[in-house]
Structures are given as structure tokens and as C-alpha cells.
Amino acid sequence: MFTLDKLTNSDNFFLLAGPCVIEGEDMALRIAEKITEITARLQIPYVFKGSYRKANRSRLDSFTGIGDEKALKILRKVGETFGVPTVTDIHETHEAAMAAEYVDVLQIPAFLCRQTDLLVAAARTGKVVNIKKGQFLSPGAMQFAAQKVVDAGNRQVMLTERGTTFGYTDLVVDYRGIPQMQAFGFPVVMDVTHSLQQPNQTSGVTGGMPALIETIAKAAIAVGADGLFIETHPEPAVAKSDGANMLQLDLLEGLLTRLVRIREAIK
């Protein structure tokens, strides 16, 4: 079974990366192949990320997925084809056991990080649980979310920073939160792309500031983040979800190369 030490027993940061949502098999395999090649060469432990379904959408007509079972089977195929672990979001308690049959890491969305039953259901699968910090919470409050998973019998926990709500249509990253959450004894990930979202736009479609992806990522590595979370797509402009804040796939190699140099410099 996949365990956290396979990510953290490295001198490098680890990476959770992939498309926002599984749009199809060919696209998922194409992205995974590219990132696997880059991370293997740079010696970055890698987890393929893809949501099998998007439950938190601004509008009813927003794309949510290609079908749960179909998308989960694609995630499993990615893992088997490239020999990498996979991560996906879950939204309700009954989804935990279902998704755990296909992926290695269950991710708790930021808006749901206080949902006790969801955290416990994820914990009981025995899978690694990645809890995203709510946009409305302080870093210190995340110790209680993590403790729910631990108390349910699972210490395979990591925490993810993804910015804090500021005003109505912006998020701000307070980098003090990374060492504050690391002090709880869990690896801490910086969600680079979601922290650059601009939610609550009048169009009903979330905006973003992808030009600042490198800024957020560099700062996170500089302050000692254990891992990075980056959503990427070959053509963000036509992505079916979160295209406004995703990184174009062909820019990933250069970014990771520069980040590895920062990591080496601060060691």
C-alpha cells in the first residue's frame, strides 16, 4: 500500500499535479506521461492528480465530469501505466470507500475540511488523506481536522494550504501557515494554482491569475513546504474546469527545474 514516507523520504519536495478534472483517457495519459518523465529526471516524488467529479461548481450548467466509474478507472489506469500513485477529491462519506478502490490518496476539498463524517470515512479506508485548509480557517485550526483522521485510526495525513479569502473575489497566501501546520507533525503542501483563483465573479465562472504561479511556488519552496500541488493542462484555455488558473503543461518543466535549484540552495 502507498504510504506518505514514499513522498517524504527524499531530499526534494514532492509534487501532486495533473488536470483539474478527468476529461478523458487520452488527455489524462498524455499529461501523466509528460509529468512522470519530468519528475523522474528531476528526482521529484510524484502523485498524479485528477478529480473524478467536480461537485463544487458556481453554476448548474458547469462541467462536472465524464461519469464517476469511467473517470476512476482512468485514474487507476494512469497509476498502473506509469507506476505512480494517484489522488482524487471526495465530497460525501459514501464516496470514500468507492474512490479508495481506485486511487492511493483521498483529498478533502477545502470547503469540506470541517466535515467530521467525511474525514472519518476517508481515514477508515487506510489511504493517505490530504486535507485542504479551508479558505475561511486559520492554519492553527487545521490541527483539529488532522486529529479527526488520526483519532479514526489513520496517521497518513498531509495538509494543504490554498490561500485565505480576502474580500469577495480574491485569495491571499500567508506563508506563516506552512511552518505553523508543519509543527503539528504532518507534511504540508502548497496548492499553487488554487491559491490564485478569483472566485465569485459576476459571470459565474471562477477567474484566476496564472501569471503568478511561479511566484507562489518559489515562495513556498523557499519557506520549506514539503510538497506542491499544481493543476496543469496542455491547453488551459479550453480546459473544462479551472482553466483560468491552471499552468500550461509545456511550462511545467522549466518551473520545476528552477524550483529544484531553490530547494537545493536552502538545504
UniProtKB/TrEMBL annotation:
Query: Which pathway or pathways does this protein act in?
Result: Carbohydrate biosynthesis; 3-deoxy-D-manno-octulosonate biosynthesis; 3-deoxy-D-manno-octulosonate from D-ribulose 5-phosphate: step 2/3; Bacterial outer membrane biogenesis; lipopolysaccharide biosynthesis
Source species: Parabacteroides absconsus
What protein name is recorded for this chain? Answer: 3-deoxy-8-phosphooctulonate synthase
Question: PANTHER family, per this entry?
Answer: PHOSPHO-2-DEHYDRO-3-DEOXYHEPTONATE ALDOLASE
Tell me, what's a Pfam family for it?
Answer: DAHP_synth_1
Question: Which UniProt keywords are listed?
Answer: Cytoplasm, Transferase
Give the superkingdom in one word: Bacteria
Query: Gene that codes for this?
Result: kdsA
Q: Which residues form the DAHP synthetase I/KDSA domain?
A: 11-262
Report whether Zinc shows up as a keyword of the record: no
EC number(s): the record gives 2.5.1.55
Subcellular localization, per the record?
Answer: Cytoplasm
Note the InterPro entries from the entry.
Aldolase_TIM, DAHP1/KDSA, KDO8P_synthase
User: What is the main EC category here?
Assistant: transferase
